[in-house]
Structure formats: C-alpha cells, structure tokens
UniProtKB/TrEMBL annotation:
HAMAP family: 23SrRNA_methyltr_F (MF_01848). It is found in: Cytoplasm. It is an enzyme of class 2 (transferase). Belongs to the methyltransferase superfamily. METTL16/RlmF family. It comes from Pantoea cypripedii. GO terms for biological process: rRNA base methylation. This is Ribosomal RNA large subunit methyltransferase F. Keywords: Cytoplasm, Methyltransferase, rRNA processing, S-adenosyl-L-methionine, Transferase. It catalyses: adenosine(1618) in 23S rRNA + S-adenosyl-L-methionine = N(6)-methyladenosine(1618) in 23S rRNA + S-adenosyl-L-homocysteine + H(+). GO terms for molecular function: 23S rRNA (adenine(1618)-N(6))-methyltransferase activity; nucleic acid binding. InterPro entries: DNA_methylase_N6_adenine_CS (IPR002052), METTL16/RlmF (IPR010286), rRNA_lsu_MeTfrase_F (IPR016909), SAM-dependent_MTases_sf (IPR029063). Specifically methylates the adenine in position 1618 of 23S rRNA.
C-alpha cells in the first residue's frame, strides 16, 4: 500500500517530513508509551487519543523550541506544524514591506489566542516578536498565563488580555497609544453547536473509528463555534478594523472555508482597504490560507516596520 504524498510546509517550518519519534521521545520520554507502528509500518501515535496528541505536542514544543507546555482538559490541542506555517507566512508578508527582510522589532496581537497560546509561543521563539494575546474567558487566560510563567523569559515577550466585551474584537484590548505591526486570528469555524458536533463526527469517520466511539476532539464552545461561524467573525473583524486603521499595519485571519472569500473581499472593498491579499498555505494533506488587509500605503507600512 502506497503512502499518500504530503504537501510541503513552509521552507522555514522546522516540522518538515515525518515525525522523528526517536528524537521526540528523547526530548519528552512520556510520549514513548503512546508510540506504535501504524498501517504503513511506521511509528506513529493514535491521533484520536487526546492524551497521545497532547504528549506529541509537548514533545514537539520541547524538541524544536525548548518550551514547556500543558493544557487543561477540554481545550483544543492545536497541530503545531500547521500553526507554525501561519507564523512563517506572516513573517514573509511583513518582509515585503521591509525590503525583503523579516522584521524582528514587531508587536503582534493574537485575537483569541486560546488556552494553548500556540501562536505567541512559536512567533516569539522563531522571530523574537512581542505578542499580546486576547481571550474572552478567564479560564483560557489563566491557562495561557500558566504556560508563559512556566518558561523563563517569556513574560517579557508575551502578555495576555481578557476581552470583556462579548461582541468586540479590538475595542477594549488595544490600549490607547498602542500600535501593532500585525494581527493574526484563527476564528471559530462553525456557526452553531450542532454544526460543531457534526464536524467532530466527520473526524471520527475520517479516522476510521466506530460510529459510537467516544468523541476525543475537545474544545470549548468559543473555540469551535460562534453565531454566523467564521464568515461572521471575520466580518466583525473587518468592520472594527476600520477604527484601528492607523494603529495596525496588517490585519490577518485564517479562512478555512474558501467559499467565504468572495464575500469577505467585497466587504473589504466597501471598507476601502488599501490592499487585500490572500496567502495560500499547504499543510500536509490540507490546503489553508489567510486573508490579509491593510489601510496603509506602501510607504506608511515600510515606515512602521523600520523601527
């Protein structure tokens, strides 16, 4: 049986090729108990087992970034290699306004950083960027702060803020006189709890599990769904971004559903965004992308990235 070909990650992504389980288990010995041969005779883990996925993430973050990482039960465990791709692609975007050089003196806001805090962790480790992560629940903020506190030196580069206004994106978390070179966001995908549950069932089928198998795909509801799904969430970002047009250079968000792009582009045209880009990314067997927009002309962007 031939193994499916995998699409390459970003060239700077540390997670090229297949997992090196010898190195991963050496970096994080508890992972060893979860490593087994898969259907191709290669070492792997059961990706339907949340504990195995958690241990794999801990090993990846320890081996490649020397980070200690833990997550409370019930929260989404992010795929580290794919998350790293967004960071590297964002770095390329910023470099286009900085003479082709990736800027290092950069402030980034992560909208909905989650309890896992994954984008700030990778972005700070790779490029030394400073991050402000926002979240709507106190529990997620507490968990993310615990990760930051568990890694000496991170408190100088990552701070967390709670968004207390349920319908706000930037208001209340972008403080007076603050400026950011970029915003990133991985918005809730589904439009309802029912849609999120159906998505979990599809994952069960794709992994070849029995129909009545327990659902091991966690996530708090605000991680999985919001009214209107990602289309509405990104739409709210666009609406609110107009008021922060001169304080944030690039606004970006992942867009999981490609069919949402035309409506979002129309909304950005109506908002009079100066430039809109769609950045395509290949992550394993999955194609993904992020939408980027700015209200600043090239000269203004370059000036803000020259600090």
């Amino acid at each position: 049986m031939n193994k499916p070909a995998a699409n390459p990650f970003h060239p700077r992504n540390r997670h090229q090729g297949r997992y090196d389980f010898a190195a991963l288990t050496a970096a994080h010995p508890p992972l060893a108990d979860k490593v087994r041969p898969n259907g191709y005779g290669e070492l792997s883990v059961d990706f339907a087992d949340p504990q195995a996925v958690m241990l794999l993430n801990q090993a990846l973050l320890k081996l490649f970034y020397n980070l200690n990482w833990q997550l409370p039960e019930g929260y989404l465990t992010p795929p580290v290699p794919g998350r790293a791709d967004y960071i590297h692609a964002l770095a390329d975007l910023l470099a286009t306004d900085n003479g082709g050089v990736i800027p290092r003196d950069v402030d980034v806001m992560d909208i909905g950083c989650g309890a896992n805090c994954i984008y700030p962790l990778i972005g700070h480790a790779e490029y030394g960027w400073r991050f402000t992560g926002t979240e709507i629940t106190a529990e997620a903020i507490t968990a993310a702060n615990h990760i930051v506190a568990s890694n000496p030196g991170l408190q100088r580069g990552i701070r967390l803020r709670r968004q207390k206004q349920a319908e706000a994106i930037f208001a209340g978390v972008v403080h007076k006189n603050e400026r950011y070179q970029a915003v990133l966001c991985n918005p809730p995908f589904h439009a309802s709890a029912e849609e999120a549950a159906a998505g979990s069932q599809r994952k069960v089928r794709n992994l070849g599990l029995k129909k009545n198998a327990p659902l091991n795909f966690g996530g708090q509801h605000n991680e999985l769904w919001c009214d209107g799904g990602e289309r509405r969430f990104i739409g709210r970002m666009i609406e609110e971004s107009v008021a922060f047009a001169d304080r944030i250079v690039w606004f970006t968000s992942l867009v999981s559903r490609k069919e949402n792009l035309p409506a979002l582009r129309d909304q950005l045209r109506d908002a009079e965004a100066y430039e809109v880009r769609i950045i395509e990314m290949a992550q394993g067997q999955k194609q993904s992308r992020f939408l980027a927009w700015t209200f600043l002309p090239e000269a203004g962007r370059a000036q803000r990235l020259k600090r």
